[in-house]
Fold this sequence. Notes:
By secondary structure, this protein is an alpha/beta fold. The chain folds into 2 domains: 4-32 and 283-412, Lyase, Ornithine Decarboxylase, Chain A, domain 1, CATH 2.40.37; 35-282, TIM Barrel. The protein has helices at 19-26, 35-48, 66-74, 84-92, 109-118, 128-141, 180-190, 210-229, 256-266, 279-282, 315-319, 407-412, and strands at 4-6, 12-14, 17-18, 30-34, 54-59, 78-81, 100-102, 122-125, 145-152, 174-175, 194-200, 236-238, 272-275, 286-297, 302-306, 325-327, 334-341, 350-358, 365-368, 389-394, 397-402. The strands form 3 sheets. Strands 4, 14, 15, 16, 17, 18, 19, 20 and 21 form a 9-stranded mixed sheet that branches. Strand 11, helix 8 and strand 12 (236-238) form a beta-alpha-beta unit.
Amino acid sequence: xxxFHRDDNHQLCVDGLLLSNxxxxxxxxxxxxxxxxxxxxxxxxxxxxxxxxxxxxFAMKANSALGILALINKLGGGMDIVSIGELARxxxxxxxxxxxxxxxxxxxxxxxxxxxxxxxGQINAESAAExxxxxxxxxxxxxxxxxALRVNVNVDPGTHAKISTGxxxxxxxxxxxxHEVSDLYQKMADDPHIIPTGLAVHIGSQISNLAPFEQAxxxxxxxxxxxxxxxxxxxxLDLGGGVGVDYKNAEPxxxxxxxxxxxxxFKDQGFKLGFEPGRSIIANNGVLLTRVIYxxxxxxxxxxxxxxxxxxxxxxxxxxAYHPIWTLAxxxxxxxxxxxxxxxxxxxxxxxxxxxxxxxxxxxxxAVMSAGxxxxxxxxxxxxxxxxxxxxxxxxxxxxxxxxxxxxDYINDEHIPDLTHFR
Length: 423
C-alpha cells in the first residue's frame, strides 16, 4: 500500500497522521516524507539484490535532507555523492567515509583532495584527465586513491533526454570503444598512487524497461571479465541506479524483476556489486503540501492558484513531469479541467496542467504526490521565495527536518557596495 493513503473517512493521511494536521501545524508549502515508506522501499531493494554480494548506496542527488540520510544510514545504506557539499551532508548524517562513492564528471582538485583526506571509499572517474588529476593529487598527499572507471556503453535507456546518461553523445563515462577503458585501466593498475577498484555504469534515470539494464550490465560484465582475464584486479562493479517509479498512481516500486536480472547476470561471477538507487526509494514516499490561494476562471480554463510554485517543485516545468494532485479532504465530485499553478511570474510555473479536479476554494489543502525525489533537492529561492520546509513522519508523529528559511536571512547574506560616488 502507498505510504500516503485515504483513511476510513477518506481524509489523506500518512502513518495514521492526517496531512491536514501537518499543514495546519507547520504551514505551507511543505514537503512531508514517510519514514515507514522509506524503510519499506530501501529494505525491499536490499532484499531484491541480496542473492549477490553487494552494497547499496543511496543517490543523494534525489534527496539530501539530513534526516532522510541518517535513516538510510541506519538501515545499512552508504551514499552516492556528486559534490563535496553532498559529502559534507553524508558525513553529517553519520555515514562512514568508506561507505561513500563519489561520482560526477567535473570534480575539481579541491574536491578530490577533500575526498581523499576524509578517506572516501571510491571515486568514479569519468575521463583520462580526471584519472591523471587524482594520481597527481594522491601523490602530493602521500596516499593511494581508490578509483573505479565509469564506462559509457552507448545504451539508450528509453527515458527523458535530460535524464539519459548512457549514450556516447552525453558527457558521462569513458567510451568502451577502441580499447580506451582497457588501456586506461592498465595505466591505473600500474600507477603507484591509485588502486583500481573496478568499473561503474549508470545509463539514466526513471527506466521502466529492464532491457536497457540487461544490455548495459552485460557489456559491463564482459569488459570486467576481459580485464580480469588479462590479470588486472577488478574487485567491484558499480551498477548505478535508474529503476523507474510509478508517478501516475504513486504506488510503491516493485524491485523483484530487477533483482532477478541482477542475479541472472552476476551471481557467482566473483564481483562485489554496488547499487545506487535514489528516486525509487524516496519519490513515492514524499509529497508536497500546498494551499489554494485563489480560484480564477479564465477565458478558456480554470486556474487553481496555490502557494507552492516552480521554485519548490521544478520537475513539472523542467521535465514535463506528471505528479498526481489530490485534495487533503475527502475527494468530491470532479467538476472539470483545471491548471494548478503557483505565484511565480512565469507561464511555466505550474504543478499540473489540464487536470480533472473537484470544486476547491481558497484555503483548501492539496497534495502533490510522488514529490520525494528531485523536489526539495532542486528547490530555489527564485522570485525571492523561501523554499518549502520539510518534515518526516515517524510512527505517527511529525518531525521537522528543515524549516522554511526567512527571506531576511537571504538578505542578511548579501552586501551592498559603497555607492556614494554615484549620483
